[in-house]
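Justification of computing resources. Each target in the renewal requires a structure prediction run like the one illustrated here; the chain below, 111 residues long, is used simply to show the kind of job we budget for.
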Amino acid sequence: MTFVVTEACVRCKYTDCVSACPVDCFHEGPNFLVIDPDGCIDCGVCVPECPIGAIYAEADLPPDQHAFIELNARLALEWPVIDSASEPLPDAERWAEVKDKRQFLESAAVT
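Resulting structure tokens:
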């Protein structure tokens, strides 16, 4: 089992979870974070740190979020590791309660 960042993170990118992670398994894209399933040690300390509840244990994923298992794995190979917290996106609060945000996911690597 691993932990998965879900659609709720899109256009928010709160990084409280990154500071809690003991193994630096988060990777950063332009408007989303992912967890490297190969680096995750399944400790779960990131889950309560996410202010919008975007992180789930793979076994607890809502059915409509299952595509994010593959997305996290694939994008973790493409995006750089993020190992410290940073400011959320400027309009994160506005996007925090929005549903169905997958179409807004930007998958280009952060430079």
